[in-house]
Specification:
Elements (H helix, E strand, L loop, with lengths): L8 H10 L1 E7 L2 E6 L4 E6 L15 E7 L11 E2 L3 E3 L8 H4 E3 L5 E3 L3 E10 L7 E8 L2 E9 L5 E10 L4 E8 L12 E7 L2
């Protein structure tokens, strides 16, 4: 046996008259319109103001050059020192973002996402490998190797999330079989804060 429940015409017309058929935001309020033409003010629907999707952050560039000319021992990783801020190429505020000491340490003073580039120019020699490395807090983050170059400039790039107090060092390694001098052009570090 099946039981069927139906609605009367009068009940269906009542439901239709109360049904919402349109809605508009007027000022900060949502105004709903029923089938019968009457309106209901559903109240304030304006949320807190958000951003417009555009970042107000401007990237900050810290660029340094080194005239490090000491011979690199064969088979030894060396921290490159002697850096100086390239003020004409660095952004205003670069010195507040990164500080440098004579031990080769670049200390990050502002948390953010950074693009870090290190370029080292090795002296001429036709055997062995040349390596440029980026270290964060004593741990290697990225390296670039070149095999058997003559007058090799080796550049390494990494994107790092850095926090206030992190220390970057830039290191070079060569495996030519002899002590190897650095070459011109001089060495370059770029630390670009992206966010």
């Amino acid at each position: 046996m099946v039981t069927v429940t139906g609605l009367t015409v009068s009940r269906m017309l009542d439901i239709e008259a109360k049904s919402i058929v349109d809605g508009d935001v007027v000022g900060d309020n949502l105004i709903l319109t029923k089938h019968n033409g009457t309106t209901i003010n559903a109240g304030n629907v304006r949320g807190p103001a958000g951003n417009n999707g555009l970042s107000t952050f401007s990237p900050i560039l810290y660029r340094a050059a080194s005239v490090y000319a000491t011979n690199l021992a064969n088979g030894v990783t060396t921290i490159i020192t002697g850096w100086s801020l390239t003020s004409g190429e660095s952004s205003p505020g670069a010195s507040a973002m990164v500080s440098y000491n004579s031990n080769g340490n670049f200390t990050i003073n502002q948390t953010g996402l950074y693009s870090v580039t290190f370029t080292f120019s090795f002296g001429a020699h036709t055997t062995g490998r040349r390596v440029s490395m980026i270290h964060k807090n004593g741990t290697e983050q990225r390296r670039q190797n070149v095999a058997s170059p003559n007058d090799a400039t080796v550049e390494v790039v990494d994107h790092l999330l850095l926090t206030n107090g992190d220390i970057l060092t830039f290191r070079a390694y060569q495996q030519s079989g002899v002590a190897l001098g650095a070459a011109s052009p001089f060495h370059d570090v770029t630390i670009l804060r992206l966010s």
